[in-house]
């Protein structure tokens, strides 16, 4: 069974109590200390009851748990808990099987970037962690990821990431498709991957086109960057909750300076199971079944190029019912595509 975040925090608190030689912790003391520490870490976190604490003590002593030298010492009518081996700590114990599996999975995720430019350090880090925690006996990978280490923008992920974390201003050389290289100052604040490409979001003080209601955000494709260097200028911060305030209202990464609209799409009977189990967007409402077996879904999004691409990917199995402007645009694009055949 995997150790949850709450359980792991409880175990760390109990471990501290058992190792504390300046105080004697009885059962009630342990219960109060655990609940107080949990509340300090998260005011909304539920406390534990007597039954859960008994299970935790049992877990500490069991072979499936930490096999800890935990003893109950009686002093008259008072009993307290402590380690008989004062050098013991769960922090010094080897990983349990379930913890090792979770760490292996995390290393597999990191392995997505192994071999990519400027991420050479990952190979050494993964090797070190595998040896430190005795993970070299992994028989085979349990997960696979889509990744292209030859993507032109990979080499710029690390510089952008470091600039965001350390609040640095960049001077970029950038070449839009079909245009000459332009140079400008950029204050990066977020990195986002979409459709196997990486994009940087931030502030460009010289930009002409800005989303006035969204803090002058500029969107750059990393594969179009041709040069990058830090410059000693004051960094303009952006405290936006990107996933909640920006990406929750669009599909993909491009944002027009428009209001959110209700988009209604009707999918054929054959396509219905797919669209029900794999929503297009987080705003998708429960589908409405039509008499012919087709389903209609409603989205609350700002229409953009990526939305059009998603709709077109369903071919003849989807019809845009509203808004009319989007319906006409998809119709025009399909008509244009038909002329190629």
Task: Report what the structure shows.
- It is a single chain.
- 33% of the residues lie in helices and 21% in strands.
- The chain has 341 residues and is α+β, with helices and mostly antiparallel strands.
- It has a 5-stranded antiparallel β-sheet. A 4-stranded antiparallel β-sheet has the order 9-10-8-11, covered by helices on one side.
- Helix 1 packs across helix 2 (27-41).
- The chain is extended.
Low-confidence stretches: none
Helix percentage range: 25-40%
Give the termini distance in whole angstroms: 57 Å
The averaged pLDDT comes out at 83
List the main descriptive attributes of the protein structure presented here.
341 residues, alpha+beta, 4-stranded antiparallel sheet, 10 helices, 11 strands, extended
Task: Write a brief structural summary.
The protein is of the alpha+beta class and about 350 residues long. Helices cover about 35% and strands about 20% of the residues.
Task: Record the SSE blueprint.
Elements: H1 5-19, H2 27-41, H3 50-61, E1 70-75, E2 78-83, H4 97-110, H5 121-132, H6 157-166, E3 169-174, E4 182-194, E5 197-203, E6 217-221, E7 225-231, H7 242-246, E8 261-267, H8 272-277, E9 288-289, E10 295-301, H9 305-313, E11 318-322, H10 324-338
Antiparallel strand pairs: 1-2, 3-4, 3-7, 4-5, 5-6, 8-10, 8-11, 9-10
Helix pairs in contact: 1-2
